[in-house]
Design a protein that fits this description.
The protein is α/β, with parallel strands linked by helices. It folds into 4 domains: 31-151, Response regulator (Rossmann fold); 156-274 and 309-335, Rossmann fold (3-Layer(aba) Sandwich), CATH 3.40.50; 391-488, PAS domain (Beta-Lactamase), CATH 3.30.450; 498-734, Heat Shock Protein 90 (2-Layer Sandwich). Helices cover 44% and strands 18% of the residues. The strands form 6 sheets. A 5-stranded parallel beta sheet has the order 2-1-3-4-5. It has a 5-stranded antiparallel beta sheet with strand order 14-13-17-16-15, with helices on both faces. Strands 19-21-22-24-23 form a 5-stranded mixed beta sheet. Helix 18 runs antiparallel to helix 20. The structure holds adenosine-5'-diphosphate. Adenosine-5'-diphosphate (ADP) binds at residues 637, 641-642, 645, 674, 676-679, 687, 692-695, 698-704, 727. Adenosine-5'-diphosphate is lined by residues 637, 641-642, 645, 674, 676-679, 687, 692-695, 698-704, 727.
Length: 741
C-alpha cells in the first residue's frame, strides 16, 4: 500500500472522527456557567499566564468555554490608590449588570481583599476560590463561601536535589526582592536552610541593587548554587519580574540556577521542587467544575485547596551545566527535551508498528466492506424473494410493530376484508377486532410480547361492510416487530356449524325412528302401570262402598296407585328426554349409571321379545366428560341392533351383555355383546356409514350417528364378531383428565 493512500486514509479517518465528535455533542450542564477570574495584578504577569494555562484548559475540558471565562486584571500594584478601585467597581458593575457569575477565582491576597471590600455586592452567592494567599494569611470575616489556597513553599527539596547535581557545592547564593511578599519568602528560606548550617555557606543578595546582584552572581564559583526565590523590586525600588531577573541571571551566572516557581522553568533555572502555577490553575479549574457540577455536595466543599509542589527540570539547562539526569528525583518532569534520532528510535518503531496496524485495519475494513456488500446483495435478493412470497401467499401475511400498527400487508388483506392497505395501516390492528374477542386478543398479544415464540389465536375481524370474518392468527415476535400469518376460517366455521346442525337434526330424526321401533313396547310399559292404577282404583272404590270401609286397606291401595303412577311418569319422562332435540351438553358423567338408566327403560319383559339383558359393570369405573343423552342414545342403539340381530335366534340364545371396562387407565369402554347373526367382517367399515342397512325398514343411520357422537366426545367405536357367535360393538371414551390415576 502506497504512502499517499495511507496518509489520505489517516486524514479521512481524522476528519470523520472529528465529524462524529461534533455530531455526538450533548448538552453539558456546565455549558452556561460563568467563571470570573480576578487577578490583582497586571494581565501579563507570568504567574497569571501560567495559572490561566492550567485553569482555562481545565474549565474548557469540563464544558466551560473561553466565552464563559471572564478575566479582570485589577492592576493594583501599579494603581494602588482608591480612585482606581472606585473606577474598577463602577466599571465592573456595568459590565456584569446583565450577567450572572457562578464561580469566582481571585489571584493573590489583594484580589480577594478587593472582592471582599469594594466588590462585596458582586455575585454574593458565587463561591470564591482565593489563590496565592501567603501562609498564615488571616481570612477576613465574610458572608461568602471562600476556599483558600495558601502558598506554603518548601525550599529544602530543591536544595537537596541541587546538592546532588552539583556534588561539591559549598556556597549558595540566595536571590530575592524587597516587596513584602519577597521578604516573607526570604524569611522562610532562611528558616529552611538552617538545616545545612555549618555545612554550606549562604549568601543572601536581597539587600543589593540589581546590578550588584548580577555582578555577584557572575563572579560565583562554578561549584556553587544560585537560588532564586521571588523578586519584584530591588532595594532601590527598581521593578523587574522574577522571570526577567532569572533571564538576566542565566545570562551572567557561572553557577547553575535553581528556583521554586514553574514560571522560571525555561527562563534560566535548572529546575527544582517547584510550585507549579499551571498545575494550581488546573486544580483550581477542576475544583470549580466539581462545585458547579454538584459532584460535591455543599457540606463536602473543602475550605482549602492544597496543591503539591512538582519536581520539574529543564533538559537544556541540565545539558548546559553538564548535570546528570540520574541525580534527579524519581518521577521528575523534564521539559524542553530535545531528541536525537537515536533517542527517537523507539518512537520510529512505534510509528512503524502503528502504520502496519493501520494498514491491516484498512485491509480488514475493505474486506469487511466487500463482505457487507455481498451480504447486502443477498439480503436484497432475499427481500425480493420475500416480496414475491408475500404477494403469492393465499394466507393473510403482515408485519406489524409492537406499537400496534400494520407496517406491511399482502394483497390478500384487501380482498378478504374490503379495506385498502392504507385504510388498514391508518388504524391500530386491535381496532378491527370484534368487541367480544378483544380481551382474548389482547391477552394473546401480551403473551406474544413476553414469550419469544409463535402463538395462535382466533378472533372475529371487522370487514369494511361491517360484517365480521373469523381469522385464525399465527404470530411471532422479532424485536420490535411482529410477523403474522392469518387465515380466514369463516367459510370453514360456517360449514362446520351447518354440519353440526345437520347432525343434530339427523340424530333427532334417528331417535324418533328408534322410539318408533319402541312405540309398541313403550305403550305396553306405560299401559301396565295404568292398568294397575285402574284396577287399584276400582278396588279402592269397592272398599269404600262397604258399610265399614277398611281404611288401612284403602291407604295401601292409594300408595300402590301412587307408585304405579310414578312408574308411568318415569317412563314418559325418560322417553321425552331421549327424544328431545337438544344441543350438545357437556357434563361430568358416570357411564355405569347411564347404562343402568337405558337398560331400565327397555327392560320390560315383553319389550325385547323375551331376550335378557345382563350388565357386567366395573364398579371402579372412572368418570368421563360427555353428553349423557347422546351416549345413552348410542347404548340404546347398540342394544336395539343386537336385539334385531337375534330376532330369529332360538330363545335360549337371545341374550345381550352390556359391559363397562377400563382397557387402560386413560380409557373407559362400553361394549354390547349379542349372540345373533354376527357381521360381515369384510364390511365392518361400511356398517358405520350413513344409510348402510340390511333391514327392509332400516334407516342405516344408527351406527353412523353413534360413531359421530363418540368421536365428538374424543372416543372411537368398533365392531367385531365373537368367537362363540354373534357380534360385539364397543366404544371407548377418554377418562376425565386429572382423574386418570
Ligand atoms: P339400521 O339399524 O337402521 O340398519 P344401523 O346403522 O344401526 O342402521 O345399522 C346398520 C347395519 O349394521 C344394520 O342394518 C345391520 O346390518 C348391521 N348391524 C348393526 N348391528 C348389528 C349387530 N349387533 N349384529 C349384526 N349386524 C348388525
Amino acid at each position: 500500500m502506497g504512502c499517499p493512500l495511507f496518509i489520505f486514509i489517516l486524514i479521512a479517518y481524522g476528519l470523520s472522527a472529528g465529524t462524529a465528535h461534533s455530531q455526538t455533542r450533548f448538552q453539558n450542564p456546565l455549558e452556561n456557567k460563568n467563571v470570573l477570574i480576578l487577578n490583582a495584578f497586571e494581565s501579563n504577569i507570568p504567574v497569571f499566564q501560567k495559572t490561566n494555562q492550567g485553569l482555562s484548559a481545565a474549565l474548557q475540558s469540563g464544558g466551560i468555554g473561553i466565552r464563559n471565562q471572564f478575566h479582570e486584571h485589577l492592576d493594583l500594584v501599579r494603581n494602588p490608590g482608591p480612585e482606581n478601585r472606585k473606577l474598577l467597581v463602577q466599571f465592573m458593575r456595568r459590565r456584569y449588570s446583565e450577567r450572572r457569575i457562578d464561580f469566582i477565582i481571585t489571584l493573590f491576597p489583594e484580589g480577594l481583599k478587593f472582592l471582599l471590600d469594594e466588590g462585596r455586592t458582586f455575585f454574593p452567592a458565587a463561591p470564591v476560590l482565593a489563590l496565592y494567599l501567603p501562609q498564615g494569611f488571616e481570612l477576613p470575616q465574610a458572608e461568602r463561601r471562600i476556599i483558600h489556597h495558601l502558598i506554603i513553599p518548601d525550599f529544602k527539596p530543591t536544595i537537596e536535589t541541587a546538592l546532588k547535581l552539583v556534588p561539591g557545592a559549598g556556597r549558595i547564593y540566595v536571590v530575592a526582592g524587597t516587596h513584602p511578599l519577597d521578604r516573607w519568602l526570604e524569611s522562610i528560606v532562611r528558616q529552611d536552610f538552617k538545616t545545612w548550617k555549618g555545612r554550606l555557606e549562604f549568601r543572601y543578595l536581597s539587600d543589593l541593587p540589581l546590578d550588584k546582584i548580577l555582578t555577584t552572581v557572575s563572579a560565583a564559583p562554578s561549584d556553587s548554587i544560585v537560588f532564586i526565590t521571588a523578586y519584584s523590586q530591588d532595594v532601590t525600588g527598581k521593578y523587574k519580574t522574577t522571570v526577567e531577573l532569572s533571564r538576566l541571571l542565566a545570562h551572567v551566572s557561572r553557577a547553575p540556577l535553581f528556583g521554586f516557581m514553574d514560571t522560571l522553568l525555561g527562563n534560566g533555572i535548572v529546575g527544582g521542587s517547584l510550585i507549579s502555577f499551571e498545575y494550581i490553575g488546573t486544580r483550581a479549574g477542576e475544583m470549580a467544575l466539581d462545585i458547579l457540577g454538584g459532584t460535591r455536595n455543599t457540606e463536602k466543599i473543602p475550605i482549602l485547596l492544597e496543591v503539591p509542589q512538582l519536581d520539574m527540570f529543564d533538559w537544556r539547562q541540565l545539558r548546559h551545566w553538564n548535570l546528570k539526569e540520574s541525580a534527579l528525583p524519581g518521577g521528575s518532569i523534564i521539559v524542553n527535551r530535545e531528541f536525537s534520532l537515536w533517542d527517537l528510535r523507539y518512537y520510529a518503531i512505534g510509528v512503524l508498528v502503528f502504520i502496519l496496524a493501520q494498514s491491516f485495519l484498512i485491509i480488514a475494513l475493505l474486506v469487511q466492506k466487500r463482505r457487507r456488500r455481498s451480504a447486502e446483495d443477498s439480503l436484497r435478493q432475499k427481500s425480493k424473494e420475500l416480496n414475491q412470497f408475500f404477494n403469492v401467499s393465499i394466507d393473510l401475511l403482515c408485519i406489524a410493530n409492537t406499537a400496534g400498527y400494520f407496517l406491511r400487508l399482502n394483497p390478500v388483506w384487501e380482498s378478504t376484508l374490503g379495506y385498502s392497505t392504507e385504510e388498514l395501516m391508518a388504524q391500530k390492528f386491535l381496532d378491527f377486532v370484534h368487541p367480544d374477542d378483544l380481551v382474548r386478543t389482547q391477552e394473546a398479544i401480551s403473551t406474544l410480547a413476553s414469550r419469544e415464540k409463535v402463538i395462535h389465536f382466533e378472533n372475529r375481524y371487522r370487514c369494511k361492510d361491517g360484517t365480521y370474518r373469523w381469522l385464525e392468527w399465527n404470530a411471532v415476535p422479532a424485536g420490535s416487530l411482529i410477523y403474522v400469518a392469518a387465515r380466514d376460517l369463516t367459510d370453514y366455521i360456517n360449514t362446520e356449524v351447518e354440519a353440526k346442525q345437520h347432525r343434530e337434526e339427523l340424530a333427532h330424526m334417528t331417535r324418533i325412528a328408534t322410539m318408533g321401533e319402541l312405540t309398541t313396547s313403550l305403550a305396553h310399559e306405560i299401559n301396565q302401570p295404568l292398568t294397575a292404577i285402574l284396577s287399584n282404583a276400582e278396588a279402592a272404590q269397592r272398599f269404600l262402598s262397604r258399610a265399614e270401609p277398611d281404611i288401612d286397606e284403602v291407604r295401601q291401595i292409594l300408595a300402590d296407585i301412587i307408585r304405579d303412577d310414578q312408574r308411568a311418569a318415569d317412563v314418559v319422562q325418560k322417553v321425552r328426554a331421549l327424544v328431545r332435540k337438544e344441543k350438545f351438553h357437556d357434563e361430568f358423567l358416570d357411564l355405569n349409571k347411564a347404562i343402568k338408566e337405558v337398560v331400565a327403560l327397555i327392560r320390560g319383559e315383553s319389550l325385547l321379545q323375551g331376550l335378557s339383558i345382563a350388565m357386567e359393570l366395573l364398579p371402579e369405573l372412572k368418570m368421563i366428560h360427555g353428553d349423557r343423552i347422546q351416549l345413552q342414545q348410542v347404548i340404546l342403539n347398540l342394544i336395539l341392533n343386537s336385539a334385531a340381530a337375534m330376532r330369529n335366534a332360538p330363545r335360549a340364545q337371545r341374550k345381550i351383555i352390556v359391559r363397562s371396562t377400563m382397557p387402560d387407565n386413560l380409557t373407559v369402554q362400553v361394549s354390547v355383546t349379542d349372540f345373533g347373526t354376527g357381521i360381515d367382517e369384510n364390511n365392518i367399515e361400511q356398517l358405520f356409514e350413513a344409510f348402510y342397512t340390511t333391514k327392509p325398514e332400516g334407516l342405516g343411520m344408527g351406527l353412523s350417528i353413534s360413531r359421530t357422537i363418540v368421536k365428538a366426545q374424543g372416543g372411537s367405536i368398533k365392531a367385531s364378531n365373537n368367537p362363540e357367535g354373534g357380534a360385539t360393538f364397543a366404544f371407548t371414551l377418554p377418562i376425565l383428565q386429572g382423574d386418570a390415576t
